[in-house]
Structure formats: structure tokens, C-alpha cells
Amino acid sequence: xxxxxxxxxxxxxxxxxxxxxxxxxxxxxxxxxxxxxxxxxxxxxxxxxxxxxxxxxxxxxxxxxxxxxxxxxxxxxxxxxxxxxxxxxxxxxxxxxxxxxxxxxxxxxxxxxxxxxxxxxxxxxxxxxxxxxxxxxxxxxxxxxxxxxxxxxxxxxxxxxxxxxxxxxxxxxxxxxxxxxxxxxxxxxxxxxxxxxxxxxxxxxxxxxxxxxxxxxxxxxxxxxxxxxxxxxxxxxxxxxxxxxxxxxxxxxxxxxxxxxxxxxxxxxxxxxxxxxxxxxxxxxxxxxxxxxxxxxxxxxxxxxxxxxxxxxxxxxxxxxxxxxxxxxxxxxxxxxxxxxxxxxxxxxxxxxxxxxxxxxxxxxxxxxxxxxxxxxxx
Length: 379
Description:
Layout: H1 3-7, E1 10-15, H2 16-29, E2 35-39, H3 41-46, H4 49-58, E3 63-66, H5 69-78, E4 87-89, H6 95-103, E5 107-110, H7 113-126, E6 130-135, H8 148-160, E7 164-170, H9 183-201, E8 206-208, H10 212-217, E9 225-228, E10 251-256, E11 259-263, E12 268-269, E13 275-276, E14 281-286, E15 303-306, E16 309-314, E17 322-325, E18 337-344, E19 347-349, H11 351-358, H12 362-367, E20 375-378
Parallel strand pairs: 1-20, 2-3, 2-9, 3-4, 4-5, 5-6, 6-7, 7-8
Antiparallel strand pairs: 1-10, 10-18, 11-14, 12-13, 14-17, 15-16, 15-18, 16-17, 18-19
Helix pairs in contact: 2-4, 5-6, 6-7, 8-9
């Protein structure tokens, strides 16, 4: 029984060394002087935004990106180093959120002429230029203008307006996590037309497009900087083995054995009696459940690691408890550590394995870890 497991009902361990190493590994792949922007939105994909921001900057990232003004405020309040690098807010913002972003000198993404005008008015009122990144929707179908003439007009307006500074031009790729999909190249080609305009209007305008999938797959997408999220956390954007990409998963999720029960044939476990013992066996109860982000759909399909071996999760996952079958001869004891995500001995439960059970992506697994789960930062 480890000290960490005995002291917590559930614990997320995050390796900052892995974050740093992943950032260095990604940076080595970049071409043409491109820089690394670490995407730390959604509490750094469930890893802890403040600590991850520090680790990413130590690992070579030169800027940070978030989705909301609140996330930007949190980082600047807790990460002094972040004040020395550009921090861009990529998501849609209300007028009040825009004012909060301007108050902390964050850079903002703009996607309509109306929002660009709101930025200009706010900058005029505050007397401080606002740095904006014009978004060209080249096929993602979310924020941004699809019409080339409108994109050019936004770029021109931002470049000539003394209240604004054209800090960037960006797009986002829809299929970069699907290796070999031709739509990535099509989007780059469409984007290149806006790139030429932006550089002619504002030589210092930073061009950025690549997410993790594009960064690792296509050097042509690197431009001036890349925006990497999932890769800096050591997970594959393609859903495969991250080790093949020279990335190390940074997060593990552990619980402990809270109780052990001996069951006889016909005894059942959990709501709905979804599992019934077919032979005498031992079952461990672990104090973790969907209230912590361990999804209900994992009941009856997922494994955990205990005593260096896999053990199946049986019955329905409750809000605060899961049951695992140990077998009749198990020597597992109360208090032993249970790994829900991560490595124990020679075995590993990956985020991708859990995502496959849930028919989702590995992003959702880590982001879904609940706020009541304490995070333990490791070097």
C-alpha cells in the first residue's frame, strides 16, 4: 500500500517532467522556425492549468492558449511566468468577457466584422491597443469567416486601425487526427491565400493553424507557431500508442481498495443486479465513481490494475463506488492501490483504452476527471 493511495480515496497524479519532455519532443519536430503554443484550456485537459503552463514554458513553449477569459485570468493570477509570453483566447466571448480579456492584455480571436468592431470600440475606450487574431474558417465549420473577401476585409481593417494590432491569422483543421485524409491539404491550400494577404499587410502577423494532429503529421502546417493540446499531455491525437510518437502520458488516476467481500454463487453486485457471481469469488469495493468522472459506461467492460494484475470492473458504476472482481485466491488487501488510468508493474490502462470502451476520444477521458479529484503534482 502506497502512502498516496492510503491517504486519498482517489488521486490524479500529474508528471510535470512528462509535460516538459513532450514539449521538447514536439519542438524538435517543428520546421521553419515555428514555435510551440501550449493549449491549456479546460484546466489543461484535466491536468491542472497553472502547473502545466509552468512546465510547458520550461519545456520550450513560447506562448499559451485558452478558450475563455476566465481561464486566462486564472493562469495570469497563478503563473507569474505567463505574464512574459503571449496568451491568446481562442473561444467566442461575450462583451463582458471581451472587456475582461482586454483588462489583462490577452490576445483575442476574432471571427466576424461585428466582433472586430467591438474590439475596436473597447480599445478606444480603454486607450490601449487590443491584439487580435483573425480567424479564417477553411472547413472546420465553427467560428471564422469562410468567404475569402470577408477575411481579407477583416485583416485589412485590423491592420489599418490604430486602436487594434493585427497579431495573428489562424484557422483550425477538421481531419488532422485522421492520418491520410486529403481534407487537411485542401484546408492548407485555402488558408494560404489569406496567409499571403496577412503577411503583406502586417509583416509581424503570426500565422497559426496546426493542432497536435497536424503538427505531428504535416510540416507544411507549422507556419509561425503550432497550437498543441493533447500531444503535450502525452496522448496520441490519432488514438494510437503515444509511445510511437515519442510522447509520455502525464496523468494517472489511482484509488484504493476500501472493502473486500466474499461472494457465493448467485450473489449480485450493484444497482440493477447487472453482475451475478457464477462461482465463489472475492470482490473489492473502491471509493471512486461517476461523481469523480469515472464514467458509468465503464461498468462491465473496463479493467483496473491491482496487485500488478488486471481486474475487471463488475456491475454498475455508482456515483462514489465501483466493484472489481479479484478471484477466489487473491491476496489483495484493504488499502492496496488500484490504478484506474496509468501503469502498475508491467501492465497499463491507457486513456485510449478507456476511450475505446466509451466509444469516444482520449481527450474526453482526461478532461472528464472531476474537480473533487485532488491532483498531485510530480516532478
